[in-house]
Amino acid sequence: DKLVPKIWTDSTKGLQKILIDFHFVSIVKASEISRCCINVTGIEDLDGRESEILNEGDRQEVWIDLGSGKTPIDCYIEIFLKEMLTGEKSRCFIATKSGQSVSFTLKLLRIDFRGYLFELPAREMVNLAQKYRENGVAMFKNHPLFAQDYFNRAAKCILSLGPLKSDSQEPPLDDVTEEELQKLLESIYSNIAACLLKQERFEDVLHLMEFTQRDEDVPEKAIYRKALAHHGLKEYEEAKK
């Protein structure tokens, strides 16, 4: 009971899992870059919702790469997995807008623990940031809030590498250049700005797009999104610049 709570809830996301059974294997939980082998059964009320994990029905053994979900259901399953211990079997519930809950029984069979995100070499961190950005782009049209979460995670990867200035005291970043990091970070900021525009958070967009005033060769999309933010604030002259 001390290791695994009988009931775990995240009310902000409408998630709940209820413990069915637990056989202790290890205290180690999955990190952001782990792979998890799971058993999933008893799927109810999916009602046509997209899920690469659940749409195939009951599955006795399937490996999941955390950070790869491209549907809301799959992203939520990853959250459950990061809260579970190996050997845990729980009934999971995901609340929906209709008032129903998608439910299924999830058992965590094994964790392929690959360390923690902050331990990754620079090149692997950049590759992970690019993967998160691609996932965000894939989800943006239909699920912009989930896309924004991926973009935020991508930015976190780049910023965790330290100052992006060549005169900083940080050690060399393998074969990763300052220019590559800066260009990728600006692209990610532009992606985040697109999400913020949908939420009409125009001032936040302008704060994020400050790099367009000091950098050369700024992406056209970044300039366009900055103009949309000015227009949203009724700063029409600024929007024309």
From TrEMBL:
Bride of doubletime-like TPR domain mapped to chain residues: 122-206
Residue intervals of the BDBT FKBP like N-terminal domain: 8-112
Signal peptide: none
Gene3D superfamilies, per database record: 2.40.30.320, Phosphotransferase system, lactose/cellobiose-type IIA subunit
Gene Ontology molecular function, alphabetical: isomerase activity
Origin superkingdom: Eukaryota
UniProt keyword annotations, A-Z: Isomerase
The keyword Phosphoprotein is annotated on this UniProt entry: no
Protein name: Putative fkbp-type peptidyl-prolyl cis-trans isomerase
